[in-house]
Every structure is written in C-alpha cells, then in structure tokens.
Amino acid sequence: MPPQTRASAPSRAPSRAPSRAPSRAPSRAPWRRADRGRSLADLVSDPVVVAPGDSCESVDVGFRTRWTGSSVLVAPREESGPYGMVARKDFLTTMTGRYGFGRSLWNRRPVAEIARWDVPSVAVTASLTVAAERLALGDGYSDMVVTDDAGTPVGILDPTTLMEALAAELAHEASHDHLTGVTSRARFVDGLRDLCADARDGGGAVVLAFLDLDRLKAVNDGLGHSAGDALLHSVATRLAAAARHGDVVGRLGGDEFAVARLLGPQTPDDTWRARALELGEALRAAVAGPDPLLPDAAHSRASVGLAVGAGPLVDSDQLLREADVAMYGAKKAGGDRVRLAGADAGPAADDPARAWPGLEVHYQPIAATADGTVHEVEALLRTRDPDGRLGGPATPLDRAARSGRSLELDLWVLERACRDRAGWPATLGARAPGVVNVNLSPAALEEVLLAERVLAVLDGTGTPHAAVRLELSEAASDAQIAGAEAALRTLRAAGVPIALDDLGGAMSGLRQIGRLPVDVVKIDRSVVAGMLDDPFDALLVEVVQRMAAEHGMAVVAEGVETPEQLDALRAAGIPLVQGFGVARPMSDAALTAYLAAPA
Fold it and tell me: Can you list the pairs that 405-410 forms with residues at least 24 positions away whose Cβ atoms lie under 8 Å?
C-alpha cells in the first residue's frame, strides 16, 4: 500500500503584528499531485514559517495553542540564507527550563537565537531512499526541510514518518515486481495457495491463467529493451484492469504473467471450465488490444494456458504445472490462443454445448447431378443467440481452437449427427440419407487419440462406420495433415470414409489427392462460382474430376447456386453437388420434412 498522507490538520502560520515581516507558507499546489504515488509530497506536513526576530514567547504560544506540527521553520536571517528550524520538543523543553525559569530567560529573546541553522534538506522530487540517506548524514532524528526545485520550503518531514514509509515501500518492493508493479512470483504463489485453501474450505474452484507473450524477444531485438520494458508494463496494466476484486495478478518472470481467480459453485449452464475459458479469452483479448502509448511494432499477443482445480485435493503446484503445459500447447499451436488443461474432473465440464450455449447442428443435402436424389448430407455447426437469431460457426470454432478444444467440439457435432441419423430411417424409410459428412477442424488433426475418440463416438452411438464421412479442410497445414496421416489410415481401415474438403481454394490441396487416404474430394465454392466465366476454374473442375477418377474417388462440388452451374457440373461429369441452389442448411426436423415431401 502506498504510504498515507499524514492525518494531522495542516499547520497555519502565526499571525503577525503590523510591524513584523509577514510569515511565508509557500503554496503546495505546484508540486503536490495525487497521482505521484509514493513520494515525499505525501509525507510532509505544511510548513509554518516565523520571522527570525519573532520572540520566543510568540513561538511558545503558537506551539501550545495553534500549531500541530513537530517543527516550525525560521525565515533566513539574510537574503539567500538558509532556513532555520525549531523543533517542538526541544523548544518546549528549553522554554520550561531545568528549574522552571526558562520562559523568564527566553520569552523576549528572538527565536533566531534558539533555532537550528544546519537543518538537513531534501528536494520534494527525491525518492524515499535518498531522503533516508540525507537524514543519516545528520543526527538521524531531527526533522528535515523538504524544498521545491527553487529551494523554497514546501513541507517538514519527520524521521518517524519517513522510516515508516520507507519500510512500507521496501515491503512492497519485496512482494511486487519492480518493473510492472504487479505481484512477484513468490507473492503470487502465496496468493494462489490462499485461493486454493479457500476453494477447499468453501467448495469452489480455482482457475489459473498462465500467459506468455509471443513477441517480447522480437520487440527487444527490433526496438531495444526499453521498448520491451514498456510492453511488459503495458501488459501488466491491462491484465490488472481485466482482473476482478479478489483476483491475484503476478509476473512470474521474463515474459510470463499469471492470473488466479476463485470461482463459486458451478451449475449445468455455468461450469467452471466455461468460466475459465471466459477468463482466458478476456485476458488474451486484453493483451492483444492496442495501447496508444506503445509503437505499433512494440505490441504482442499472448499464449494462454488454463488450469482449473476443485475439491479437497486442489493444489497450487499442480495448477501451475498444468497451466504451464497448457500454455506451451497454445504457443506450439501458433500462439494468440487459449488452451485449457483438464484439472477438474467431471463429464459435464467437457460438453461444448454447456461451455458455449446455443450450439445447434444443421444439415445441408448433397444431391446427385443425374436425378437430384439426396443420399448424403453434411452436418454443419450453427449458433443461436438468446433472441433466437441463427448464426454461423465462426465464434465457437475460433474459441475452440484457441482453447485447445477443437476435437471436443467436432466430436460433439459428430455425436449429434449420429443420433439424428439413427432416427431418420423410421420416418423417411428409403429416403433417409445413408451418409452424414462431418468436418474435422485443422487443430483436431493434432490430437494424438484422434482415431480412437472418433471410433468411440461411432461405436457408442451404434453408428455403422461407413455411415459417417469425415471431411478434412484444405486449410489444414501440411504439418497437421502429415501428423494425422496415421490416424486417418486407422480410421479408413476401420471403414470410416475420408473426404478432402475445399479443394481448389488453394492449389496445395491438389498434391494431397494421391497422397492421402481419402475417398471423396470436394471442389471449393470459389471454383464453382468462377467456372462459367474463368477458363482456369473450368479447367480446374475437369482436372479434379479426372484425378479423382484415376484414384477411385468420388467428387462433390460445393456452393452450387444456379441452374447454369448445375448444368456445367453435370456436363463435366461431377456426380454430386451441394449449395443453396440445391437446398440450404436446415435443422433435423426441417430436413426430415424436406426429404419426406413428394418429389
């Protein structure tokens, strides 16, 4: 805590007889500012200044009836001379005298004769440490004069107040990071332990967010360490602003920060993990936001790892380890994202629909170009806001990728699609779609247990493996595709067909046709949109069809919107199409009604 301004009422200069020179009590307005923080300005008492010719009797009366300060100043005896000082305790002792005759001896004598003229002084802009050093040069227990830049007294500082403030400052520095002002690593760990104890006693949970700046080294190398220091200070300020009362915010060292929060009881609609993700995303956004005080090149984003602990065994060291590992996972995945470790057990915490309310699965028919019959559909993620408005999948997909839960979200869509598909034959009979296409996010391809978890969903819902086709986005990097190749081959060997989606949107996907274990390729909507006017797009459609046929693959054209596009695709030998020109995505109930309607 910053040292508090002394609570005593400000002293006032004594009144003067007309014949006496007026006393001076210099204004403090130019130098006292509330935003200075720890400074001498917050510690001094207002100065009372008496003339050197004032009688000791008048000063005696002032001390005993009007002035509350520990000392008064005596104006210089000559121009540009030093100020003197009369200490209350010493002065009153002198005026009393050893045998009680002090006042009879001193009352009529000028105060200049009893004043001390070698008073230590310090500038108001000096640090507490400098003030303490100046105090030590004197007797160590006398008051000091605090002056402005011109040497005019602006206050009196007593040693006790200075030492108390210095002790508070040193204690603060011992528990806080000097550069950023947030708590130090040791103090943060202590605060995290306290939160864990509160969680154990109160039945709540603790979420720990571990942040690592993605660009501090680049800022230091490119702009210098002063810019890096400014970035660290800016990040600390923004994290502290994003925190709530009771949160612990600290710098763990280097470019690493952490925020810990105590969470109250969870509900099915408001889980601890959901709240943890909200915190992580809020902190990520706070760091990513612009700071007008920083150059554009001095900004950075952050990788955020989250860990949640609850129950009687919640442990601060475990949370630190898990959040650290999750943070490195976020950084390895490209940075500027949030990853959540599974520190709190419980199936409800892994349900994306509970983490992000409003998720729905809609289905878009895939029709044959020959006769328009529908034998397949694509499952598409949608969102619905509290007002009932339907939205796209961008927000939950982005949040899932940032939190390392892309596979969980994909598996949730897969399970919903499997359960909906199971009900179609009873209503639609032979018109029921035989295959549901389900997308795999690029980040999901990085999961080690991809094949096992997909097969577990299919087997758990009783879905034939051939009834679900997994679609790989062309947006997946070569590294992601290569890393998932073994899992894809395992799935294909288990009878799960694979499709390569969005082919042609970027030319890199053409290389994958003969290299990946895929059964279907899907032509990107951008190619379909241009094929009637752009000879290159028209040629690309023919090339994809020819390459697919050579490898025994089927082809689906996406984004078909007009009869002319449909005719051109039919003429090019493309067997399957989907798009608004065929049917828009629709809910399970709407799909059933659509397929049940007479042709």
Answer: 405/340, 405/352, 405/355, 406/441, 406/442, 406/443, 406/444, 407/441, 407/443, 407/444, 407/447, 407/450, 407/453, 408/350, 408/352, 409/352, 409/381, 409/441, 410/438, 410/439, 410/440, 410/441, 410/444
**Residue that the structure tokens 């030590």 belong to:** 136
Return the active site residues.
Answer: 255
Note whether 521 and 553 are within 8 A (CB): yes
Q: What is the pTM of this model?
A: 0.51
Reported as a single tens digit per residue, the pLDDT across 185-244 is 989 999 999 999 999 888 789 999 999 999 999 999 999 999 999 999 999 999 999 999
Helices 216-223, 225-242: axis angle to 10 degrees equals 140
Element (H, E) at 540: helix 535-550
Q: Name which of 62, 60, 56 is nearest 25 in CA terms.
A: 62
Phi, psi of 187 (to 5 degrees): -70, -35
Task: Provide the token pair at 313.
Answer: 């065994």
Could you tell me the CA-to-CA distances from 572 to 186, 511, 576 in Å, in that order?
A: 69, 21, 11
Q: Which of 404, 414, 407, 385 minimizes the C-alpha distance to 323?
A: 404
Q: Determine the Cα angle at 106 with ends 100 and 109, to 5°.
A: 175
Tokens of 507: 């030319």
Nearest alpha-carbon partner for 453 in 473, 470, 436: 470
Beta strands in 485-595 (DSSP E): 498-503, 520-523, 554-557, 576-577
The answer to whether 271 and 355 have CB atoms below 8 angstroms apart is yes
Residue 349 DSSP symbol: G
Dump pLDDT digits (tens) for 32-45. 223 334 688 888 88
